[in-house]
Structure formats: structure tokens, C-alpha cells
Structures
1.
Amino acid sequence: MRGEFIDVNGARLYYYAAGTRGGGEPIVLLHGFPTSSHLWARVVPALPDGHRVVVVDLLGYGRSDRPQGRPLGVRAHAERVLELLDVLGINYACVVGHELGAGVAQALAVRWPARVARLALVNPVAYDEWPVREVRLARAMLPLTRHLPATFLLTLLRRELLRGYAEQESGARSIDKYLKPFASADGRDALVEHLLALDAAETAQLAPRLKDLVMPTTVLAGAHDPFLPPAVAERLAADVPGAVLEVVPDARHFLPEDAPRAVADSVARLLARE
């Protein structure tokens, strides 16, 4: 496993490659808000052999560059991922996205379908049913919170994120990793940029075109997700022709961490579909 930075239109994106090259399609893993490539740490080793695995930190998250005014919407992230795949010489891949990353995956599949061989949407944002209440509340408070120490905003966010984990102790450790890049004045400003960019209008625009998707698709949800209920996943699975819906019991929002084996097995089944 190795990690490196790639310049995409003047911004450095961090990614790491794993897995074993073979005849199988590459697998691209996209995280959501406000996480990073660490989200997939326990999924990657459980994925099937014979596939090149690429795990990305989206712009402004993890080790990738700060946004610095660059667009952070679903389509903007999708365009950068597409450019990253071009640089890596990946013509098409099985794209797996969690939450916001699932919105990015939908944008890739709808706008550049030839580049998405298979699609897995995990705890997905979709339609106009996000951002969740907690994010809307945080945005409403921005006139106040953006001038307060970063620790204040992060304390509120940490408490809400913890609700998304079935296993609270390991969840708390992961949250500390995800929020570390935002624990400064510059980091707070970057977090504000992310909050302001979470726009359901983008996925709502994609919704009428979901019926045109032809690639094998799986929609995966945690049965007890407090932020994006399984009903969203059910609607997505109904709208994408031939999509398979899988609901994982006893799991919450951060499914790749709550149930990494279930996610990896679901991707394996997707890869085996004709």
C-alpha cells in the first residue's frame, strides 16, 4: 500500500493504492462529509483479490489540499475524481461512495457513464433529502460560529457524528482523525466552506436521470442510520434499474466502519454480477 499526491488543476489530492492488479475492474472508494480515506481502512483488506483499489481524500478532507475557494459541490468533486482517474490511467472502475461520496458517485455515473463499470452507494445522499438537520442547524449558526474558536464548532460536530456509530469507542477515535485537519483557524474556515457547499439541489438534478443508468448497482444502508434513513436507499434502489438493495442490521451511518465485512462482501457480490 502506498500513498501519494497528484496535482489536479492546481490542487493536490491525496490517494493511496491497494489491492492486487489482475483482470478485475479497478475499485475506487469515495468517502463522505467530514471524513477521509481512513473510512475505508477496514474494508480495503477484505475486498476480493485481483483488483486495483484506489482510495481518495476528496479536496479539503484528510491529507488533500484546503479548498481555498475552489468549488466543493458534488459535480466539482466528481470532475476532480475523473481527472484523477485520467492521471492514473483508469478508464473505468467500480465506484463505491459513502454518503457525500455516494452523491459524487451518482454524478459520475449519470454524467460519465462509460467511466463507471459498477456502482455501489453506501448510506447515500440523494434527491433533496439532505443535508441532515444537524448540518442545517450548523449552517444557520455560522454567522456566530465562524468567528469562534475552531474547538467550539468541532465539539458540536463531534457530538453529532458520534450518533452515526454503532461502536462508540472506535467511532470516537475515527472522529478525532477526521476532525484533526479542521482544528485550527484555517481549518475552521475550510470546514465552513464544506458546510456551505452541501447542496441537495445537485443530487435533485441527477434524480430524473437515475432511470437511465445501466451499470450493475448496489445500494447499501445501515438499518439504524440516524442521519439518512433506509427509506432514501430504498427509493434509490427503486429508481435505478436492476439495483440491489441491502440493509445491514445493527449498523448506523458509518457503515464502512460499523460493518466493514458486510460492505466488502456486498462489493464482492456486485463485482460478480453480469
2.
Amino acid sequence: MNYWLIKSEPTNWSWLDQNKSKTTMWDGVRNYQARNNLIAMKINDLCFFYHSVKEKQIMGIVSVTKEHYPDPTDKTNKFVVVNVKVKKSFPIPITLEKIKTEKKLSHISLVKQSRLSVMPIDKKSWNIICKMGDL
């Protein structure tokens, strides 16, 4: 199993929207590195669901339910989507500010390459973040 972080601007698609929908297609990625990360995702991989822009916090966890396929919103046919399903909410959302205070997380892409919308998370960092969020 692999671990990931996927970002969404809450005004476009929020954790509340994801919870209402349960399972959804993760579309709209238009960065090649993020696309390659979507391609690497496998069924049952887990992803942190992150509110970007103003909130900058991890809201919960989703799992991959369908591996990559062409993004129907992409007219160039260069980008892909995966389907994700709600697993659980964090009792306390984990802010980027809080993540940055944890020295053991200073190497993760969320800290080093903050604009990337889909990024891998190593297992050790995954566990630290889950503990920070009381999971």
C-alpha cells in the first residue's frame, strides 16, 4: 500500500462535498508530476484530503477505489483521474502550520514543494500525521 496527499480548493470541492458524495472522480489535475502520481496510485492506497488555498489543512482520509483512467474534463487527453472514497475524518484538522513545526516532516513535498496537488507521503510521515490528528 502507498500513501498520498491530494489537494482541493474547498470552494471547488470540499471535504463536506466529498462526504456527501462518498465516492468521486478526482479530476482537474493539470500538472505532469501530479498526473504521474495519479498514475502510480493503486486500489486501496490511502490519501490525505487537503484543503488548499486559505485553509491549508488536512481534513480526512480517502482511499483509491479505481485506478487511473482518462480525465473526461481534459480535451487534450494527456491527464488522468482516479476514483476516491471517504474513509474517515480527522477529529481535528491538521494545519500546514502544525505540520511545519514537526521536524520529522520537514522533508515531505507538502513542506518542500507546496504547490504540487498530488504527492506521495512515506509511511513514517503518514503515521506521524495520523497521530497529530488523533487517528
3.
Amino acid sequence: MRIVLDTNVLISGIFFSGPPSQILKAWQEDKIQIVVSEDILIEYQRVAEELSKKFPEIDIEQILELFTIYAEIVDTSGLEVTVCEDPDDNMFISCALAGKSKIIVSGDKHLLKISGYQKIKVLKPRDFLDNYQI
């Protein structure tokens, strides 16, 4: 199963326990494939650096390096998606389309509103775990 993770889900999974961390564990166990774009990796890095200042005991660089090695990086150039109220969220839709992923895991209200666009489901982390028994 191929999924796209919203930045907040990834960051929550790294820094806290709960459904987001269970999703990252499923990825580590090869139960799911995480699909990312260069734009998403840059966003992950930016947000992670901000949080790592508050949580210096967590080696965020090592975790992000694993993403660049093991996540599937897709090319979204040429995809002009403008369906989200928040333009910053369009990169997740573009990534799902380019990576042929039918699922975005997010708690973002703007992304959740467009669930179903191009047959892409946007699910909250708990809903994803419950629906797919990961």
C-alpha cells in the first residue's frame, strides 16, 4: 500500500506516540510504502529543524535521512494542482497523483475537505489504522 504522509503526521510520529508513530512503525516493517516528493522532503526538513530545537535529544537528521533512502521519491514537476484552500497543501495531492497513491494520511482540515479528489482518500491517522488494519 502506497501512502503520502502530511508533515504533521510525520512529525507527530517522530516526536510523540500514538497513531502517527504506529504508521511510521508499519513503514519500518515494510507493511506500507511512503511516497514523497522533493517539495515534501523540504517541508519535512524545515518543520523538523524547528522542532528539534525544542527536542534536542531526538536525532531528526538520521530519521529524515531514512526517508531520503527508503521512501519512494516521485517527480511532481509538470503537475499543477490547485484544489486546496491552503496552497501549501497542494504538494501532497501532487505527490499522491505522481506516486499513484490513493491515500494521504493527514489531520489537516483543508486536505480532509477534498478527500475523494481524483479518487484519493484523505484519512486521519487513527482512521487509516482502523480502516486498513495496519
4.
Amino acid sequence: MTTKPTRILFICMGNICRSPAAEAVFVSLLDDRGLTDRFHIDSAGTGGWHAGAPADARSRAEGERRGFELSTTARQVHDGDWEAFDLLVCMDHDNATLLSERGAPDHKVRLLLEWHPDSTHREVPDPYYGGPEGFVHMYDLIESACERLLEELEASSAAD
């Protein structure tokens, strides 16, 4: 019996900093655990300003330093994503609200940091207008949350 892969879309504003980083981190975790065939991972932005562009150079540099490859190009989220993906994982409340306002099913829209071990962290701050330290912090948050998200998904699939 072939199981349909779990489809996760990571979402931020422009799809050049946070969501491609989350995509790369999650894909790396899947590769490390031999689970790539059980998931389909993508990322998108609520805005289309950067559509077709590579990830921000600072995000790519910090990702590379940590062993992640950000080779995707930015795209804007579209209404078809609501049906195509099982989880719409947003980096912050603003983007989650935008999805809900556009008609995304509330049960699919989640914040990435719901899975962060420190509940005082609620959102992944947008590092775009800051320096390199913002990208370091961004990756720290994303790595911790993605690890726990994958653990939860593995546990729930084992229970099925």
C-alpha cells in the first residue's frame, strides 16, 4: 500500500528569507532520516514582489554555513495551495491572518513556532532589514521548530 505524502508549505512574506530557510531545514531533516519519499515540501510568500528570485544572499550564506542548500526560487502563494497542501506553516501572525482572509482553511494554517520548545517564541522575526545576526537567530528558531514538527508528524503517522 502506497501512502500519499504529507504536503507542507512554509510561508513568509516574500519567500526569500524565512520560508525558503524553513523548507531547506525541513528537507535536510527528511534526508537525514530517510523520509524524503513520505513528504512533499515547498515554500511561498504572501506577496509576489520577489517571485522568480533566488533566496536572499544572507539567508543562503547562513544556511550554507549550517549545511543547508537554499536553491529554490521565490513564488507567491495561490488559492490552489489550500487544497494542494496538508499544512500551511506560517512564520508569523500577519501572514497567517492573510491566508485566513484569502480563504485558507483555518485547520491547515499554523505558525511554525507552535513547535518551538520555548513557548515564549511566537513568531520568526523577519531579518530582511537587519544585519547578519538576524539570520543567525532566524535559523536557530527554525531549526528547533522544524525538528519538533517532524517528530510530531512521525509520531502521528506511527499512531495511524
